[in-house]
Structure formats: C-alpha cells, structure tokens
Amino acid sequence: EDSEWLSTLQNQLQVNAFVNPQNYQRSDEQIGWVTAESILDADFSLMEKWFLDPYVYGQIRIDKKTLPSNLFRAMFEMRVKEWMLTNNRDRIPKNEKADIKDVLQAELFAQTLPRVKTAEFCWNLDQQYLILLNISDSFNEKFCEHFYTTFGLTLRPQTPLMFLKASDPNIETMI
Fold first, then answer.
1. Which of 12, 61, 99, 100 is the most exposed place for a label (fewest CB within 10 A)?
2. Closest among 134, 152, 155, 169 to 62, alpha carbons compared
3. How confident is residue 171, by pLDDT bands cut at 50, 70 and 90?
4. What distance in Å separates the CA atoms of residue 57 and residue 51, rounded to the nearest whole number?
C-alpha cells in the first residue's frame, strides 16, 4: 500500500511539475513543483530527489512576466503616431490600434524574463504536517491551491502565533 501511495504522489508531482512555457503571450502565472535541488529541475522520476521516509520535500515555483507599463505606454503611443504619419491620418481605427498593441506586447514579452518566486516545503506524511518556508499570505494561498490541485488535500495554515493561541487561550491577553 505504501508503494502505491508513493507512486501516486510521484505521478501527481510530475503531472503538476513546473513547465517552462515556450513563449509568454500574456502576463499569466506559471506554477508548478520543482525539486529542492534546483528551480530548473522539475523531474520527479527519481524518488531520492523528493522523498526521504517519511518526508516529501521540494519547492514550488511561480513565474510571472510583466511589462513595464510606462515603457509600454510610451512605445505604444510612438507606434500609433508613426502609423498616423505613415498613413497620413489624424485618427487611427480601433482595429489598427488593437493590432499595434498586440504586436508590441508580443515583442516585449519575448524580450522580458519572468519574475521567479520559489519556496521550499517539507511534508511529513506520518505526522501529517507540512512546513512551507514562506511568509507571504498571497504566495501561501497559491501554494495551498496548487497543493489541493495536485493531491486533493486541503492545508490549514498555522503561524507560530496561531499555534501559541491554540495551546494557551490566555495568550491573547498577554500580547
């Protein structure tokens, strides 16, 4: 039964591993699992890379490309003016404007590196707790969502203060 469970975990990690997109067309986030060894390693085929009984360990990686809005706006306005000069027009049709915007976004996304965020995790299967090395609420929420997508399990975040309050109801009055 243990080997079946581990095989399921391995498959789910691999299915939900980080995948580098061929090209970013928009500012979509890419999210997935990578090994603890490297944010570039999303291969979970070797169990020793992610499992040390009773621990599952690795990292979550979230990439997002964004364009500098002020530079994009300036370049867009310049291209619109160039189009109006080239076509000897005072106004630009909506569809031309949209085409210029799409082309410019594609060009700039191709030149832009993503912002990469990672956090290591260690999941104790026997005692059923997981430690995530991160304190950002929004990042932790994304981790919980991806964890649920991957394993079908809901995590209940626990901060040190929450832990203290749960162990001693009088802690509230001391803080």
1. 99
2. 134
3. low
4. 6
